[in-house]
Amino acid sequence: MAVIYEKSKGLTDAELHYCPGCHHGIIHKLVAESLVELGLLDEAVGVCPVGCSVFAYNYFSCDMLEAAHGRAPAVATGVKRTHPNQAVFTYQGDGDLASIGAAEIVHAAMRGEKFTTIFVNNAIYGMTGGQMAPTTLIGQKATTCQSGRTVEQAGMPIRVAEMLATLDGCVYAERVCVTDIANLNKAKRAVKKAFTKQMNREGFTFVEVLSTCPTNWGMTPVKAVQWLKENMIPYYPLGVVKDVEITEKAEVR
Amino acid sequence: MAKELWKGNEAIAEAAIRAGCDCFFGYPITPQSEVPEYMSVHLPAAGGVFVQSESEIAAVNMVYGAAGSGMRAMTSSSSPGISLKQEGITYLAASELPCVIVNCMRGGPGLGTIQPGQGDYFQATRGGGNGDYRTLVLAPFDIQETVDFVQEAFDIADQYRNPVMVVCDGLIGQMMEPIEWRPIPKRDLPPKDWAASGRRGRARHNVINSLYLDPESCEELNQRLTVKYAEMEEKETRWSAVNCEDAELIITAYGTPARIALSAIEELRAGGLKAGLFRPITLWPFPEAPLHELAGSGQVKVILDVEMSSTGQMLDDVRLAVEGQKPIRYLGHAGGVMPTVEEMADAAWTAWKEVQQHGGHL
User: Fold this and answer.
1) Residue pLDDT, tens place only, A199-217
2) I want to staple A171 with a disulfide (CB 3.0 to 4.6 A). Which of A26, A188, A203, B38 is the partner?
3) Rg (CA), chain A
4) CB-count exposure of residue A25 (10 Å: 0-12, 13-18, 19+)
5) Contacts of B211 in chain A (CB under 8 A)
6) Is residue B362 part of a domain?
7) How far is B97 from chain A (nearest CA, A)?
8) Cα A48–Cα A49–Cα A52 angle in degrees, nearest 5
């Protein structure tokens, strides 16, 4: 009997705790498959965040470190600088990366740390129960902006991929989503490209994945995908934000 | 071996390199900036990694990553910067990651001053981070001890899989003294087979973590740590007692005030008061039993605790150890002001006269 599909060796047998319709499971699978296909699983060290994907260390079968909230890029810096031949990645949500860990991600990108960040943007704090995130859209309801986010109260949402792309140390930034097969394939290509450029020692690589949170958005999984397409993609456009071979050097003369 | 003249902070960095420190992550702050400066030049030359982090928070988390992947990792700072590292220190302790953290203490609270202080005793020994954890805290009182302790700290950390702090006040960091590079005691160190540095053929994946949502599992972690801390208390407690055998007055002090107290007890003895110095060398574990025993001996009439702290912080541990057996008096300076020999001697005489007048009552 021919095996036509099997679970990636990059994942353990642990049962995922994610809510129905959440995209974390799909994104885990893409990262795991990419590591296996690039022959990097045995070399990989992952750093997981505080947030819904806090248990990622139970799901990925490579070595893993659990970081304090927002500090994953600093932890990954400590791993990668001392283990330059390993494939190092952080897996972070929007509260972790864009709010409490904003300094760590900006400076890791500035230094051109040679690791890959998978940034899962679902525009809300999931684990703590649906509070407003820096990426929550204007008008989007959350438990700490119950009539919808306003510019006056919270400012405009942050576009992290575009922000990091302004830094020379960031050599690759792409925004993807996993709402359908075509986008899923694009997302996987982006993840593999990021790891490939990391292993080529080009610089910091970043993949932002737009994701649903049906539970905290208060929608069915199907409705959540539709909402993502209609609301998130217009503000967070998909595609390559930055892809350079060699970073320009600014030197003091 | 020949003596060499070294500045405290540079000696700290050199001692770490000699101890096989693989990587250093730090952020500038007075009065410890010579540590990262020295490291930036000499650690890469020795094959190690130096990164100037964006913050103290990032530095201690870089230590977490490097230590978690099996490296000998170090960071250093001074008081306000050590405050920022507290989150990282509780994660390091909970995940049982060995590392060395140097605090070149300055006066506080808040931004305080850049002059020497000892106001971080509680922070170091009680833990400024959340939860029940301990860091072993070594408190040298000269540069020779500082270089010895920094080297030993890496081995102690590896032996117990626990963060080790070396706390010296800004004076030790900034002054120069002759030292010898002498060998440190050998320890039997376990392999770091728990490190998350890539499986590379290993059957199972390693995980560095401090999250235990199941309450029984979290209590199990706490119990395991408690057993480890008890072993550290039993095996690693250090102190020094000078002229205590016949002493009627005991000065308790650590770090620079203990150094000053050596002169004070000489002066007191010359004046006819038999004074001794009891100096905790590990602030945690605190040498509770030996101080208790000393305080209980018949000839000791009074204890004078001296710290560069306005309220007295080690004073709490002195009280707990003495357990009311003898009266305790306190002399404290803060904000970067150091006690003088004369002040200590005066405070000792005052304490002595008080207990004479009140017949030794508390």
Assistant:
1) 999 999 999 999 999 999 9
2) A203
3) 17
4) middle
5) 54-55, 66
6) no
7) 11
8) 105
